[in-house]
C-alpha cells in the first residue's frame, strides 16, 4: 500500500513548490541520516563492496524515475509500465545470475510485451507507439527495480542494514544529482505544509522498507510477490478515484496482461 499510494503525497509536495526530484532527495537524505544513527557501521560495508554500489544506483534510479513519472504523468499508465518488471527480470537473471530462460519465463516475457503494446498503442490507430516522457520514466523505473531485486538476491549474504542503507543512499544521491543537473535543486520557503509531508514520508518509507524486509524474510517468496502486486490495485484505484489517471478497455486489457505476467512470475518463479 505504501508504494501504491506514494504518488499522492508526492503531488502535494509538488503543489507546495518542491520538485519531485528534490522531494525524493530530501526524503531519502533524512532517512539515510536516521539509518546512520541506528547502524553507523553499515557504511563500512557499503563503501567496501562495489556490488552494493550497483544496488545504490539501481534503487536510486527506481525512486527518481517512479516518483517523477507518477507526479508528472498518468498514474495508471506509469504504474503499469513500471510493473513490466517480469520482462526485465528474465533478461537480467540470465545476464547476471546465468539462469536458464525456461518456457515459463518466455511465457511471462510474451505476456509482458503484449501488455506493453496494448498500453502504448495509439487509441486513434496507426503503427507508431505513443511513448511519452513519463512512459519512459515508468519503463526505466521498472528496469532499475528489477535490477535492484536481482542484485539483492545475488548479494543476500550482505547484512540487511548495509543493503537497506545502499538503497536509501541511492534515493538521496541519484535524485539529488539529477535535481542539481536539471536545475531543480531549490527548496521553497520553509512551510509547515511541505515540511510535514517530507517528515511524514520519511517515516512511511522507513516503516515500509522495514516491513518489507521483515515480511520477505518470513513469508514464502511467492506470497511476498503476490502481496507486492496489490500495489498496482492501490495505485490504480486511488488514481482513478482522485482523477490522476484514466482507464479504457485497451488500457485495462494491457494492464491485465502485465498483471498476469507478474502473477505468473510470483507463482512460478
What does this structure look like?
There is one protein chain. The chain is mostly helical and 269 residues long. It has twelve helices and no strands. Helices cover 76% and strands 0% of the residues. Helix 4 runs antiparallel to helix 5. The protein has one domain. The longest helix is centred in the last third of the chain and has 25 residues. The model has no long low-confidence stretch (mean pLDDT 85).
Could you estimate the helical fraction of the residues in percent? over 70%
Largest sheet: none
Give start-end ranges of low-pLDDT stretches. none
Coarse structural class:
mainly alpha
What value does the average pLDDT take?
Answer: 85
Number of domains: 1
Strand content: under 5%
Note the main attributes of this structure:
mainly alpha; 76% helix; 269 residues; globular
List the helices and strands and how they pair.
Blueprint: H1 7-15, H2 20-38, H3 42-48, H4 50-72, H5 75-82, H6 85-96, H7 103-120, H8 133-154, H9 160-181, H10 192-216, H11 221-241, H12 249-267
In short:
The chain is mostly helical. The protein has helices at 7-15, 20-38, 42-48, 50-72, 75-82, 85-96, 103-120, 133-154, 160-181, 192-216, 221-241, 249-267.
